[in-house]
């Protein structure tokens, strides 16, 4: 049977643009994974690895005009947004190159032998190794930053792991262009091109997670698809780590004092955040707790005005548009749910208009569970609450999220800081603010105060993850520590130095940051890991 063709489709028209490739067969997946496995030793050289990541950024920039044009044609996200996304992607690659050169990700710990200890301690030396071939499942909503050249791929390569990417069907042409750039960068730096490869097709994705040479997987997508792959990864004869980002409601709480202070500003800011990228960000605020009363009314009026002023936009594909329309229609049918702004199709039927639902916290019953599920697209749910108990009851129904946000008045946080003890904090205007931040911390991996969650800065301290179903692990997919997902620790006990890897030698020939007998040691500046040594 002939392999099924892979078509690039324009979401603005629904028409096929070009035949890009064929769906990968089981044999194709096996060949890609085996070639990646053979390339694993070449990535052991940290200097070559860092050079490769920087060369990849250069190659993507050199072909940036063509890549951005293809991504726009396949996603309808617009040239300005995609130009910024390419910059984020290349910046991320360079940031991981810096991490590779620094060597801190190896987490070198040396505890020298202590025969006099109780009990006596042997010589123990620990560091981290690449886990092996990594499968990456590209995201639909970020054709660059969370796809073939995105964070999962960049962090896995930085850790020393070859990658096989299952391209997303929404942007196959973009995926091919980016894969070509990465493979050319590998050749530029004398690494095997098969350190990165791409396969297409649903069955290829299933075959990939089951392949015995695949040692870990990274996924960004839906709860249904991610959970199916997660279960497949766990059901293997040798289960593997599956780092999946699945679904997130990203709750926002507006305190009564904040609504009184700046209702219109918060309403307009929320409108901008929930419609950014036509509501197709994984951190879009999907449920907002708004206080009862006139100040909350002003906030929703400003939000409604912002939504009505927002032009209709395209979703990434027909399936997502249909799901958005069905999801908003289902929510509109729920008892006691008002629709201040009705979501629906735009004038050309291929676009969608943003929407807003409103419901009283006191009216929420078991039949309203749909309101607590993510609806991908430009829509949010405003829950009107009267008092802390009602707000807590709503928060108690929200599952793990990537983000949680609270909007406070200017004096609320300051009052908490000024409170001298717990009793004073309870009496102070901001006493509830500290409790609220603590409550939201239990729900999410990133907690924001007086901001909006859309936009995930690529920075060493960033964490993009959260309790299930936001993610299937405690790791992050953005930031420097993302590469920790693709490493495994190993300790050597009483091992002669001649048999130790150079990373664990007493002289520290690679200039790595280390912890020795509990004391942090930074390498001398003139022997840093940016030198010629490999690792």
Helix/strand layout:
Elements (H helix, E strand, L loop, with lengths): L4 E6 L4 E8 L3 H14 L6 H17 L1 H12 L3 H24 L5 E4 L12 E7 L2 E5 L13 H9 L3 E4 L5 H17 L7 E4 L2 H9 L3 E7 L2 H13 L6 E4 L6 E3 L1 H20 L11 E5 L2 H15 L4 E2 L3 H15 L5 E4 L2 E2 L5 E3 L1 E6 L18 E7 L2 H8 L5 E7 L2 H9 L3 H6 L3 H11 L2 E6 L37 E7 L20 E3 L2 E3 L14
Parallel strand pairs: 3-21, 5-6, 5-8, 6-7, 8-9, 10-11, 10-18, 11-17, 16-17, 18-19
Antiparallel strand pairs: 1-2, 3-4, 4-20, 12-15, 13-16, 14-15, 21-22
Helix pairs in contact: 1-7, 2-4, 2-6, 3-4, 3-6, 4-5, 9-10, 13-15
Question: Would you give an account of this structure?
Answer:
By secondary structure, the protein is an alpha/beta fold. The protein is 37% helix and 20% strand. The chain has helices at residues 26-39, 46-62, 64-75, 79-102, 151-159, 172-188, 202-210, 223-235, 256-275, 294-308, 318-332, 388-395, 410-418, 422-427, 431-441; strands at 5-10, 15-22, 108-111, 124-130, 133-137, 163-166, 196-199, 214-220, 242-245, 252-254, 287-291, 313-314, 338-341, 344-345, 351-353, 355-360, 379-385, 401-407, 444-449, 487-493, 514-516, 519-521. The strands form five sheets. It has a seven-stranded mixed β-sheet, sandwiched between helices. Strands 20-4-3-21-22 form a five-stranded mixed β-sheet, with no helix packed on it. Helix 9 (256-275) links the parallel strand 10 and strand 11. Helix 2 (46-62) crosses helix 6 (172-188), helix 3 packs across helix 4 (79-102) and helix 13 (410-418) crosses helix 15. The longest helix is centred in the N-terminal third of the chain and has 24 residues, at 79-102. The relative contact order is 0.13.
């Amino acid at each position: 049977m002939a392999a099924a063709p892979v078509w690039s489709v324009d979401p603005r028209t629904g028409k096929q643009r070009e035949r890009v490739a064929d769906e990968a067969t089981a044999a194709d997946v096996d060949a890609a994974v085996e070639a990646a496995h053979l390339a694993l030793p070449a990535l052991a050289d940290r200097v070559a690895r860092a050079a490769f990541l920087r060369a990849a950024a250069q190659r993507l920039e050199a072909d940036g005009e063509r890549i951005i044009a293809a991504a726009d044609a396949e996603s309808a996200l617009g040239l300005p947004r995609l130009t910024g996304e390419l910059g984020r992607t290349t910046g991320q690659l360079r940031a991981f190159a810096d991490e590779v050169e620094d060597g801190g990700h190896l987490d070198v710990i040396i505890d020298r032998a202590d025969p006099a200890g109780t009990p006596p301690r042997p010589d123990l030396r620990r560091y981290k190794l690449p886990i092996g071939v990594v499968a990456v499942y590209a995201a639909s909503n970020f054709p660059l930053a969370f796809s073939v050249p995105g964070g999962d791929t960049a962090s896995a390569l930085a850790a020393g792991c070859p990658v096989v990417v299952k391209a997303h069907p929404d942007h196959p042409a973009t995926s091919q262009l980016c894969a070509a750039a990465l493979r050319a960068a590998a050749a530029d730096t004398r690494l095997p091109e098969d350190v990165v490869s791409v396969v297409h097709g649903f069955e290829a994705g299933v075959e990939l997670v089951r392949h015995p040479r695949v040692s870990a997987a990274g996924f960004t997508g839906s709860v249904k698809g991610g959970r199916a792959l997660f279960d497949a990864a766990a059901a293997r004869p040798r289960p593997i780590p599956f780092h999946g980002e699945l679904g997130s409601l990203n709750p926002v709480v507006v305190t009564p004092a904040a609504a009184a202070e700046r209702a219109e500003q918060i309403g307009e800011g929320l409108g901008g955040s929930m419609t950014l990228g036509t509501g197709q960000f994984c951190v879009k605020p999907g449920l907002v707790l708004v206080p009862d009363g006139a100040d909350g009314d002003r906030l929703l009026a400003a939000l409604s005005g912002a939504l009505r002023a927002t032009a209709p936009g395209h979703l990434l594909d027909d399936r997502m548009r249909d799901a958005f329309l069905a999801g908003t229609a289902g929510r509109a049918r729920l008892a006691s749910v008002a629709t201040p702004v009705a979501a629906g199709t735009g004038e050309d039927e291929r676009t969608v208009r943003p929407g807003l639902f409103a419901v009283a916290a006191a009216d929420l019953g078991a039949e309203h569970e749909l309101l607590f599920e993510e609806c991908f697209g430009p829509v949010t749910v405003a829950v009107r609450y009267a008092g802390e108990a009602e707000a807590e009851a709503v928060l108690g129904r929200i599952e793990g999220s990537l983000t949680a946000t609270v909007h406070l008045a200017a004096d609320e946080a300051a009052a908490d800081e000024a409170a001298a003890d717990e009793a004073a904090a309870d009496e102070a205007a901001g006493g509830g603010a500290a409790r609220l931040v603590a409550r939201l911390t239990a729900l999410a991996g990133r907690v924001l105060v007086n901001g909006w969650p859309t936009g995930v800065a690529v920075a060493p301290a960033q964490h993009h993850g959260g309790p299930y179903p936001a993610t299937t692990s405690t790791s992050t997919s953005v930031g420097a520590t993302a590469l920790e997902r693709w490493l495994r620790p190993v300790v050597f006990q009483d091992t002669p130095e001649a048999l130790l890897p150079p990373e664990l030698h007493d002289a520290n020939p690679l200039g790595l940051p280390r912890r020795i007998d509990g004391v942090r040691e930074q390498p001398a500046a003139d022997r840093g890991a940016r030198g010629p040594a490999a690792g």
